[in-house]
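WARN retry 2 of 3 for item q-0093 after timeout on previous attempt; input resubmitted unchanged.
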Amino acid sequence: MEFRVLGSLALVDGEREIILTSAHQRRLLAALLLEPGCPVSVGPLVDALWGEDPPASAATTVQSYVSRLRRVLGPGLLQRSPGGYLLAVGPDSTDAGRFERLAARGRSAAASADRIRLLDEALALWRGDAFTDLAHHPPGQAEATRLAELRASCREDRAAALLTLGRFAESVADLRALTVAEPLRERPWRLLMLALHRSGRQAEALAAFRAYDGILAEEGLEPSSAIRAVQATILAEPDPAPPAEPLRTARRPPRPLTPLIGREDERAFVLDLLKKHALVTVTGPAGVGKSRLVAEVAAAEASVRLDGARVVHLAAVADPGKVWYAVAQELGVSGQGPERLADALAARDMILVLDGAEHVLDAVASLVATVLARCPGVTALVTAQERTGVAGECVAPLSPLSADGPDSPAVRLFTERATAVNPAFRADGPGAAGTVAALCRHLDGLPLALEMAAARMGSYTPRDLLDRLDRRFALLHGVRATEPGRHRTLRAAVDWSYRLLAPAERDVFTDLSVFPASFDAPAAAAVCDGDPEHVRDVLARLVERSMVTAELRGGRARFALLETLRGYGRDVLAGRGDLDAAQGRHAAWAAGLAERADAGMRGPGEAAWTARIDDALPDLRAAFAWASAGRHAGLVRRLTAALLAYAYHQLVLEPADWAARALETFGDDAPAALHVLAAIGPLNRGDLPAAEALARTGHDLARPGAPERNMAALLLADAAGYGGSAEAVAGLVTELLTADDPYFQTLGHVTAGIAEVYLGRPDGAREHAARLRALAGRAAAPTLAAWRHYLAGEISAAGDGIAAVHDLDTAVRTARQVGNRLIEGVALVAATACRTRHGLPEAALPAVATAIGHWRRQGDWTHQWPTLRTAAILLSRLGGHRDAIVLTAAVAALGPAPYGQEADDLAAVEARALSALGPDGSAEARAAGAALGPADAALYALNAIDARSRDARPRAGVTDSG
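OK item q-0093 returned
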């Protein structure tokens, strides 16, 4: 059965035409043919049959019409489906589907004669306007308009193909008919002008322009720059030349052998730019896929340009003076010089692709400027690592593919190419997805690197490559033998870019390679060996040449090298023997930044300086590693002392781990600050004896008043307090209370005041709070204000619950504003305990869950134990007695013993549980809790809170819910 909609609706069964006399049946069938093979629900069918005024029985009547139509069509064609009704036919069962298929083949045909033949077949299918039975139905109107637009484009393409073959008389006749049928469409007028001009009828060509101009004027419109350029070309040739010299190369560029993956948006973007600009330059670093993208774009443009697309590869052109010759040879144009080349292209409608222009950029810019000035129908598409600088140029920067997640473009490309090499390859196997995504990230999402890595999947696994990426240039080679030389290996691609740099640019580029992550211009000036202003100028050039990336972050420019380029630069430095010196300058800069940030975090600008250190952690990690490996004690001490307060308050424990490893390197010669920084790790991970030993050693080695000695005293006091020795705290912070540094004075009073609260001595705590208020003017950091609110809340908690909660919530908010995870956590737990103690346990449930999650994220078990005890007290108040006993038993087995008010509250928990569960039930719960490990205990608490709040599905495991 054949369905004809390009004209009045008709059905043809073999040689028999079936007539549908009912208008409703024709509309029903037409509506189903809008999407043949797809279900159409009853609603759209009702709209198609009756428009905006359906009868009350519309749905039932549709079923009746369907039954009648089914009898006409025969069995199996009109089917009921879950989504409505569908015609079980393919696109080729309709003349519209065949038209679209033939039109696509015709428009993409390489030979003009084939193009005309296929377009003639497509256009012959039309018998009138499409979908006339649905003239009142918006979806039908939209489809009819779309098909009519495609029909008009095919007629234009056919006329253009006639023009290409020199059949000017036929072309002129067809184009005149098109301009009459649709006088506002520009392309027929432009082609008509070219056809008349190429056949020597200049006056008529100009008259056609005037006619079109007049039609537009009546509509209040003006001709586009493209058709004005054709007019200018005609006016420039008072004695028209014979038809243009034929171009030798095929009008369609070679078809890419592999699909373009992950560049769908970029392809559409460049195609759109080509409609608006005469010159588009695609820029980006080596290996980012510029050539592959423009090959796809050229293939698409070839089907819509009269003279197609021509691709000229410039990589092999060493002499800038021969650029024009390489283009002329590729196009088959005879004669000498750029002027003759421009003459040959003057009347052409084409895309000229100049691929790989960075090494002959000035010559390419000159040639493009000449051609575009004299050839209005030519659009230039250039690939280079920087822009050409030609007036009117539009730049399309091409970034690496995103590698964020298993469905990212980079992972899709890698998987596609890896599967082609090894059909058994699976990127979604157990543990493989994360490894593949990490591999793609470390390869910077560069398509060249991804394809080379994928080519190794016959003998390597993704983990093998990921573990060997420090040797990426040795691994990723020898797998693209058919590619141009600069694309055969990863090193060759980067070598090509590096050799194009001026000597000063090479020096700055290699020095920048010691930055492990992004950096700003002052940092670059500090690390590079040269005049700061000169370094900034060169940095800007490296960005223009796609060797350095740039982005605005928080209103400031940040720069970075792709990991691949960074590795190359370090290899160059190492080969020259300059790597150690460059890393030393970087480490000195990092130490200076850390010291400035440490000072800044003690004032009102704390949040900004904390963010600076967060961003600089990769630099500090690299600087610490270099200084430790070289036993540069002075630099290590600077870095360590500057990071003490940051690691302590932000609970960023990584610097403590650096210090622990450095202690092994330095041995007995380790600076005092190393011991103190290393102590922060075990202090927060629950190993209080280890923390105390490290802090004690650092304290004894440091000079009085030094930051590391003050921090060591604070850590010793914390270890004592967390371990249950609150009485010892006052003596341990004595030197802080008289310190010259108001920052450590404040911390000393807070620590001593908290100990007084836990010992049940509120008057002593209030004395410390009063001292804090006196210090406030000299200690302006928001962190210290948060500590003052925290101490005030703890003091009020025993009596004035409202005031206590207010102060503790204020401490939480203030701490969050500056990223102080320590105060945020302890104040959150204290506020939870206060709400529980003062009769608001339900309100405390989400807060205690948040606190448990907070400590889990930090890996902080020292603070997790009291939080879990608080959760137990809360659950007990809400009737979850078994859960409360499980948690108290778990913490008793894992953490230090409670004291003060907390010990009293836990004793009450035990009493309530014994009463509710009995001796055996309590014993069973205690045994279950004692068997839990740290992670299991935290997870158990979260499950118990979920069950008690009835606010979420349990995360895992089994809890006592009643």
